[in-house]
User: Fold this.
Amino acid sequence: MINAAVIGLGWWGGTLVEAVQKDSPAIRFVSAFTRSRSAKDQEIAAKHGLRLADSYEAILQDPGVDAVVLATPPRLHRDQIVAAARAGKHVFCEKPFTMNKAEAEQAVAAMAAAGRTLGLGYNRRFHPSWIDLKRRIAAGELGTILHIECTMSGPNGLTLAPEAWRAQKDEAPCGGLFPMGVHAVDGMIDLVGEIDQVFCQSLRRAVPGENDDTTAVLMHMKGGMSAYLGTMMATAGTFRFQVYGSKAVALLGGNTHVVGQSSHQRRAGLFGSYLLQPVKGDAEAIEVPEFDVNRAELEAFARAAEGGEAYPIPAAQMIHGVAVTEAIVASAGSGKLEKVA
Assistant:
């Protein structure tokens, strides 16, 4: 059993705690640190029996804490991970990983030097429907992969508080890229490998703040296929992930995280439909099980930390995902095709 501390008790930090706190055999939260120490933070801590620490440093010095779970803005992640590594703690980091590739490499190196486990919160990878799609692609059931595309949208940009990190252009560039689109980037890497080049257009159409709300990215994969990512932060919530092969097309449909959803919906309602359309014949609707992806990722992290099977997102993929988002942001600024470092 891993004893963990959650850093950040906002709506997502609380969701992570709720995923495992009742009955997980692998991980439990014993303490928390939050800068605001708001009434809501204290309510969450009391509900789940968490000790509220006075500082992140106090968490790292606590011998009763084996691991830290970072539900904090991405600009803080590199330094928080390096500090945890020096303190001998395992780290589960919510996405996005870091702001740039150099920071990602520094965080990964620190954890490797400390011999500690690093997990990254791309929870969609853990859903049985996603795992089934990956298996079908690897087995050649879709044929030669021609193109992958994903569209993710939600209304959260319309109501974000001006001080929220997701509303800041320097902390969450390209609108929905950091809150949503990084999931699709990671998914494409998981299914078909690394990304070679990107071209991005990012616009502000309807949100009241300074950040963009409508972002479109064209990508060329190193494996030869093309890809597209679209994110919108000022419309209804949707998720569509499509893989086009020479034998069949696969479509995963579902939801993004929308303000006001229940914790259960945020954890178990990401996918709602799964369709396989062969070149010839009728489409097959594949059953989508209800599945708590947050519990699955945290328990996989805990098992790895205790010496079990390695966490299923390799460090090289963590770093490459950040390199891709860095190139996307660069392209939005330059108006040019950018090579992924």
About this structure: The mean pLDDT is 96. The longest strand covers residues 145-153. The first helix runs from residue 11 to 20. The chain has two domains: 2-123, 125-295+322-339.
